[in-house]
Specification:
Shape: globular
Number of strands: 5
Order of helices and strands: EHEHEHEHEH
Structural class: alpha/beta
Distance between the termini: 39 Å
């Protein structure tokens, strides 16, 4: 079976880095994943916020076709996660939120609420359609969210 190659930027909190490889393995049955995510295990020693945003993050988001946001505890409070989402939407990227596995209730980042294309659980049968274009919006327990269809236009 020929798998489709996709370029992803996986937005996440530093402590959720351990979920990046399992996520790629999860979707690997359908996709050949190329990932441009920033990970703490490969430090860059940058400290200037604008340098980090526009010289490190922006090119990696620009390269990706889809931005996946891993959602777990405290993700909603991370300024860089919100910035990555806001930057990605300005570049016309598809933005898919994925709840980390577990029976927990996670709040989602404000920028994902405003600009996301889909939000699903850690379930291959939901993630693949979301990456492919589905607009399904779920709560962390898998139930559909009220007003779950958010449509946005890339028109200026």
């Amino acid at each position: 079976m020929n798998k489709k190659t996709i370029n992803l930027f996986i937005s996440h909190c530093g402590e959720h880095e351990k979920y990046i490889e399992p996520f790629k393995e999860l979707i690997g049955s359908k996709y050949n994943v190329r990932d441009s995510s920033i990970v703490e295990s490969e430090p860059n020693n940058a400290t200037n916020e604008n340098y980090i945003k526009y010289s490190i993050l922006a090119p990696k988001i620009n390269w990706a076709g889809t931005v996946v946001v891993l959602i777990g505890p405290e993700t909603q409070d991370r300024a860089y996660v919100n910035w990555e989402i806001e930057y990605a939407v300005k570049q016309g990227k598809r933005i898919v939120g994925v709840y980390l596995p577990g029976p927990f209730r996670y709040d989602i980042p404000e920028a994902l609420e405003k600009y996301g294309d889909a939000l699903v659980g850690w379930d291959i049968d939901k993630i693949n359609p979301a990456i492919g274009g589905s607009t399904r919006w779920e709560k962390s327990d898998g139930d559909l969210r009220p007003n779950s269809h958010i449509f946005r236009s890339n028109c200026s």
